[in-house]
Amino acid sequence: MKKSVFSLGLATLVLAGACQQFKTGEGGLQYKIIKDGGQPKAQTGDLLSVNMTVTTDRDSLLSSTYKIGLPQIINIAADSLPGLYPGDYNSMFKMLGEGDSAVFKLNLDTMAAKTMQPKPDFADHYVTFNVKVNKHFKKGELTDSALYAEVNTYFDGEIQKLKASEEGKINDYIKKNNLEPLKTASGLQYIITEEGTGEKPVAGDTVKVNYTGALVATGDVFDTSIKEVAEKNNTYNPMRPYEPAKFAIGVRQVIPGWDEGLLLLPKGSKAKLIIPSELGYGERGDGRGVIPPFAPLVFDIELIDVLKPAANDAAAQDSTAQ
């Protein structure tokens, strides 16, 4: 998988731990504490806000909170919960408190033996967790509702920080790539890199579009209609077709940034659309963890064809007849 440095904080973790040796705990769990903040460690019922990367022993990235831009909330479960065992995922976080950072190697052979589940096919022996604890929410005498209200207030603040950073991400992207986009009243920014000679679509027309979408903040491609691009960016899915997307324009079948941007392009045009989250996936993201909340997006688009409603109906009838 594509590798990159996600933040100075992560790089510091890696460098600080480079000279330390791993210790081995129960269940074959390997660990090294990079920083001990001297605070109480997590107990059953507590929650931790962490930044974390998860990689395999094949050097593939599985997930990263740094890419999402939001911390992950970890619930410390009771050891008696079915499926838990000494040296598991839950055990890792019980070794940490606020301000701590550590690296863990979760033993997959132990996991398979203890849970009676097969090892995942994406790793051989270990999955590695680089963890930094931002905040420790202690259950203590709090009711569940009081504890989660505290967590929700904290997380809402993190989301607002993410929202506030969006404009800066867009400006940095434009500056870094030496772009001079045009900007509409809605906040959409676009550059026509190759202007077509055909007519522009109007609302209700059906368009055929080749596209590649990426996160402005990281440049990571999350979707494309082009097989070669998917293969190059490790997003290839053999279960989906790679062909131009076909949809009605201006009738909310796609995100608002597409509806607006495609209406600006003559048929045959190629363009780059820089779409703020308000015109994309908004404050919730895509719900799958691929597109984070308040994530600005960039799409490279080619408007291949424009079909008028009557022509589109005729094409559909011909396809049905065949």
From TrEMBL:
Pfam assignment, any one: FKBP_C
Presence of the UniProt keyword Isomerase in the record: yes
Domain of life: Bacteria
Catalyzed chemical reaction(s): [protein]-peptidylproline (omega=180) = [protein]-peptidylproline (omega=0)
UniProt keyword annotations, A-Z: Isomerase, Rotamase
EC number from the UniProt entry: 5.2.1.8
Record-level Gene Ontology MF annotations: peptidyl-prolyl cis-trans isomerase activity
Domain PPIase FKBP-type: start-end pairs: 204-307
Gene3D superfamilies according to UniProt: 3.10.50.40
Similarity comment text for this entry: Belongs to the FKBP-type PPIase family.
This protein's name: peptidylprolyl isomerase
